[in-house]
Design brief:
By secondary structure, the chain is of the alpha+beta class. Among the domains are: about 1-95, Phosphorylase Kinase, domain 1 (2-Layer Sandwich), CATH 3.30.200.20; about 105-135 and about 185-280, Aminoglycoside phosphotransferase (APH), C-terminal lobe (Aminoglycoside 3'-phosphotransferase, Chain: A, domain 2, Alpha-Beta Complex). The chain contains 10 helices and 9 strands. The model has no long low-confidence stretch (mean pLDDT about 95).
């Protein structure tokens, strides 16, 4: 509580009765604040550039103005929603309504509501002015991927005592190295320029709150909002949040399509691009084993490497 007392003074709140560090969230420091009258959420932003934090608040305000349920920012007596304190930016938010649902407890009803809310959110953000982004080169060459895998294998292999999680990582990397020896390089396809818009950027169950009817009633964590392609966020959610579970994914897509259309061709293109990203991405492993960031160990899981394209092919016929 001492670490947050100085920050909270900026809001001149009623007496605070408790502060606890939230267990969810890795990149932002989040604290649950209790007073005799209400519950609030204090965030210490990971972003160090004020313009980026202001952009996040502008996105939230825009979404709320267009009917998307998101906890409101609490203003200081001077009318500010961002406080610069002790070398970091902080914001205070109303506490999200109702409750979160763990990934393993999601039902088809939850998934359908998630799809409906994402479609509503995409429509709400479609007219938000977005900055121009340079097209990033995504070469098909898999040699850099193989080199990164070999480097990680060497670093983990040099560890004295290996934990169970270390063995999971080794299994993943070894099976990926074997796959790379005969793999056909995936090709990234640029999404249609006229369909790019602002998207939430991290739409998954950990950033959603549900009521007792399994309906999404609040959306949080907007700091990854950026220019994107809505079908790409759909595919990301199907993989990360719903684990390509057939029942959950079909419910999600059905829900989305009740509000906004999305074609199987667009989903296929987005899935191909997500396959490319997953093959080239080692940020969790590099964070843990190259930068000693043990906060990321929560993302390590058992199991061999399986290309997303292989898993997508099993579920794709259900989404047409």
């Amino acid at each position: 509580m001492e670490a947050t007392e100085g920050v909270l003074r900026h809001w001149d709140l009623e007496p605070v009765t408790g502060v606890e560090r939230a267990t969810s969230g890795v990149m932002n420091q989040t604290y649950l604040v209790s007073t005799a009258q209400r519950r609030l959420v204090l965030r210490r932003h990971r972003r160090s550039v004020r313009d980026q934090v202001e952009f996040e608040h502008a996105v939230i305000a825009h979404a709320r103005a267009h009917g998307i349920p998101a906890p409101a920012a609490v203003r200081t007596p001077g009318g500010e929603v961002i406080v610069d304190h002790d070398g970091a930016f902080h914001s205070l938010f109303a506490f999200a309504r109702r409750h979160q649902v763990s990934r393993g407890a999601l039902t088809a009803e939850h998934a359908r509501s998630m799809g409906v809310m994402l479609a509503r959110l995409d429509l709400a953000l479609a007219d938000f002015p977005v900055p121009q982004r340079a097209v990033r080169e995504r070469p098909a060459d898999l040699a850099p991927v193989a080199a990164a895998v070999d480097h990680l294998l060497e670093r983990i292999g040099r560890r004295g005592e290996q934990t169970e999680q270390d063995r999971w990582a080794l299994d993943l990397l070894r099976t990926k190295a074997a796959w790379l020896q005969t793999a056909t390089p995936p090709i990234w396809q640029q999404p249609p320029a006229d369909e790019l818009q602002l998207v939430h950027g991290d739409y998954q169950e950990s950033n959603l709150f549900f009521d007792t009817s399994r309906t999404v009633v609040d959306v949080i964590d907007w700091d990854k909002a950026d220019v994107g392609w809505p079908p790409a966020e759909i595919v990301r959610t199907l993989d990360l949040a719903l684990r390509l579970d057939p029942e959950l994914c079909t419910a999600f897509i059905d829900g989305y399509r009740t509000v906004r259309p999305v074609s199987i061709d667009d989903l296929d293109q987005a899935a191909g691009n997500w396959d490319y990203d997953r093959i080239h991405d080692h940020w969790v492993l590099e964070g843990v084993y190259l930068r000693d960031d043990d906060r990321l160990r929560i993302f390590l899981e058992p199991g061999p490497f399986v290309p997303f394209a292989d898993r997508w092919s099993r579920i794709r016929p259900l989404l047409d």
